[in-house]
């Protein structure tokens, strides 16, 4: 009954990989955002608080960056917990996608950027296997978010 393309074994290994990086959700979530803002400075324009920040060090210390990093990781964590239940998974992804599409008007390419940076960080910290086992999850998340954007007329 699942619209997910992940097998039970893939779900389990993805959860194992995610647990490693989620163990330090605030620092790792912050690292992901700082890297995104540094490598893709245009993404800063969506965050009024971060606009004036140019140094990675300054961003790292920012309460707003830290709390948003944690928020991103919490949302992904909720999705990861429901990978084997597509209804519950979509119940998390759908409102998130709608909010980013309609209220925040975030370009959907930014979800792919964030996911790719999470995968990079996983590889750097925990190796290629960790990254590989989470890759399908990021594809699921981005696919579903893109579908929601299409429904919202993007």
UniProtKB/TrEMBL annotation:
Role noted for this protein: Involved in oxygen transport from the lung to the various peripheral tissues.
An MF annotation (GO) of this entry: oxygen binding
Gene assigned in the entry: Cygb1
Biological classification of the source: Eukaryota, Metazoa, Chordata, Craniata, Vertebrata
UniProt keyword list: Heme, Iron, Metal-binding, Oxygen transport, Transport
Catalytic activity, as annotated: Fe(II)-heme b-[protein] + nitric oxide + O2 = Fe(III)-heme b-[protein] + nitrate; Fe(III)-heme b-[protein] + nitric oxide + H2O = Fe(II)-heme b-[protein] + nitrite + 2 H(+); H2O2 + AH2 = A + 2 H2O; 2 superoxide + 2 H(+) = H2O2 + O2
UniProt-recorded name of the protein: superoxide dismutase
Secreted among keywords: no
Natural source organism: Notiomystis cincta
EC number: 1.15.1.1
């Amino acid at each position: 009954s699942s619209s997910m393309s992940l097998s039970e074994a893939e779900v389990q290994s993805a959860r194992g990989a995610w647990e490693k990086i989620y163990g330090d959700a605030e620092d790792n979530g912050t690292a992901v955002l700082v890297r995104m803002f540094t490598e893709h400075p245009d993404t800063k324009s969506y965050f009024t608080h971060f606009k004036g920040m140019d140094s990675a060090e300054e961003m790292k210390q920012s309460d707003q960056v830290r709390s948003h990093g944690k928020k991103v990781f919490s949302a992904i964590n909720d999705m990861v917990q429901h990978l084997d239940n597509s209804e519950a998974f979509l119940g998390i992804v759908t409102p998130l996608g709608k909010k980013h599409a309609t209220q925040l008007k975030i370009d959907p390419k930014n979800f792919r950027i964030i996911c790719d940076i999470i995968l990079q960080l996983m590889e750097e910290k925990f190796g290629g296997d960790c990254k590989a086992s989470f890759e399908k999850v990021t594809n699921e998340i981005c696919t579903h978010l893109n579908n929601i954007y299409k429904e919202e007329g993007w």
